[in-house]
Design a protein that fits this description.
The complex is a heterodimer of chains A (about 80) and B (about 350). Helix content of chain A is about 20%, strand content about 25%. Chain A has about 80 residues and is α+β, with helices and mostly antiparallel strands. Chain B has about 350 residues and is an alpha+beta fold. Chain B has helices at about 20-35, 40-45, 60, 100, 105-110, 325-340; strands spanning about 70, 80-85, 95, 115-120, 130, 140-145, 145, 150, 155, 155-160, 165, 180-185, 195-200, 210-215, 225-230, 240, 250-255, 270, 275, 280, 295, 310-320. In chain B, the strands form five sheets. In chain B, strands 1, 10, 12, 17, 18, 19 and 22 form a seven-stranded antiparallel beta sheet that branches. In chain B, strands 2, 3, 4, 5, 6 and 7 form a six-stranded antiparallel beta sheet that branches. In chain B, a hairpin with a 2-residue loop joins β6 (about 140-145) and β7. Chain B starts with 18 loop residues before the first helix and ends with a helix. The chains are: A alpha+beta (about 80), B alpha+beta (about 350). The interface of A and B includes residues 29, 40 and 75 of A.
């Protein structure tokens, strides 16, 4: 399935991008707050090689730049 | 006339004392028979007043033993906060009681902005709070300064894209034990996706692990669709032998005595808006043993967009037991508040 977002070849890169977004929005605001991130990353674990990605949101374009479109393999609907 | 203290002190007859107090006084009096009591002690005894214990009230007092219980109202009157909300203006968070959601405290906090739920507190006493740590995946409760309402009661909106909650404790359900899940919700006007989930246990962040779930399905395995179904990904559940619409408020209950055999006719009960439904198994696959992954609300697999619920939820109660005998009482309590049907 086609996804619009940001693709990373290592999980560390995805974690770094997630932190960039959280820092931009000042998260977490206090140690007591539950909100740690602005966006989170996903793992395309059914793809080879495996990769990590963040789905596009208007609120992160100014942080992560122009998104790209790429294919992600999702689990097939199971049959009975 | 005294009570036989035997120490030569005048003691009034207490003919109107209630039994509990009398028992307490007698215990102290017996003590005084063996010890030399001062007047002050006797006055202390005389001052004792019986105070009846205050018993909790609410749905969870009437139907105790929930494994997890989430609501925007108090399900038991000892509840303090029901949600923690992040306001969009500056990401500040604050806890709110059910009363504070409706009395203006919440919207005063958010101002003319949006409010998102970061924590939906578990009222069952098990502290299995539902949490979403990612801002863009938090369900909305205030929109542009107005508390979201459905049927005149506060409601929490799941966008059907990536909003959901995690919990932290191990799946409370057992493979051979009973399961009861009841929810008051509203399905938005969008068409049902393949596996929209209200509540799941042992779901996963990715992959196709065995799980337990109650939600909606329009998957090809299920017929007719869209409908209410359990365990729609495994697939090893049952379905309502009818269809449900969109843009509807629904009070749905699911009651089984044994998860491992719940596909067997007569052992499971799905209810919609106060009525028992005709159900049927939709596959020949039996459930397999559950793992320990925690409860999730609004999804069973975060990587599977088709399992994200699109709509609003006002209340979810889950028991790791069969509450079939209490189903009418529980649902009546919920409907008396939300007036769904």
């Amino acid at each position: 399935m086609e996804v619009n977002g940001y693709k990373y070849t290592t999980e560390q890169e995805a974690i770094g991008a997630r932190k960039q977004c959280a820092d931009y929005y000042g998260l977490p605001k206090t140690p007591e707050d539950e909100t740690l991130y602005w966006v989170d990353y996903n793992t395309a674990e059914l793809d080879t090689p495996i990769f990590w990605y963040i789905t596009f949101d208007d609120s992160i374009e100014m942080i992560l730049g122009t998104p790209e479109t790429f294919e992600v393999t999702f689990p097939e609907e199971p049959t009975i | 006339m005294g009570l036989g203290l035997g120490i030569g002190v005048w003691w009034p007859t207490q003919t109107s004392i209630i039994p509990g107090l009398l028992k307490a006084l007698c215990a102290r009096a017996t003590y005084c028979e063996n010890k030399l009591c001062t007047t002050a002690t006797l006055e202390e005894i005389a001052a004792v007043r019986y105070t009846a214990p205050v018993l909790p009230t609410g749905l969870l007092a009437d139907y105790p033993g929930a494994a997890a219980a989430y609501s925007l109202r108090n399900l038991i009157d000892t509840t303090k906060n029901v949600v923690r909300v992040r306001r969009s203006s500056d990401n500040t968070e604050q806890n709110f009681s059910a009363a504070e959601i409706t009395d203006g405290t919440l919207t005063t906090f958010t101002g003319a902005n949006d409010g998102f739920v970061t924590v939906w507190y578990d009222q069952s006493g098990n502290s299995n709070n539902a949490v979403q740590v990612t801002a863009t995946q938090q369900p909305k409760i205030v929109s542009s300064g107005s508390t979201l309402l459905r049927g005149g009661k506060p409601s929490m909106q799941f966008d059907g894209n990536d909003d959901y909650f995690n919990t932290s404790q191990n799946n409370p359900f057992t493979f051979t034990g009973g399961v009861s899940m009841i929810h008051a919700s509203y399905k938005n006007a969008n068409a049902y996706k393949l596996y929209e989930t209200i509540l799941s246990a042992n779901g996963a962040a990715s992959g196709t692990k065995v799980k337990m779930a109650l939600g909606y399905s329009s998957a090809s395995a299920v017929n007719p669709t869209p409908t209410i179904a359990t365990d729609i990904w495994q697939p090893s559940g049952i379905q309502y032998d009818g269809t449900v619409g969109t843009n509807e408020r629904q009070l749905i209950g699911f009651y089984i005595s044994n998860w491992s055999t719940h596909r067997s006719t007569g052992l499971s009960n799905i209810r919609l808006n106060g009525s028992d439904l005709t159900t049927k198994p939709y596959s020949s696959v039996n459930p397999t043993a559950l793992g320990t992954n925690p409860i999730k609300i609004g999804v069973f697999n975060e990587s599977l967009g088709d399992s994200m619920f699109g709509g609003e939820i006002q209340e979810i109660i889950a028991y790791a037991s069969d509450k079939n005998l209490d189903r009418v009482g529980i649902e009546t309590n919920i409907n008396d508040h939300y007036l769904i049907y």
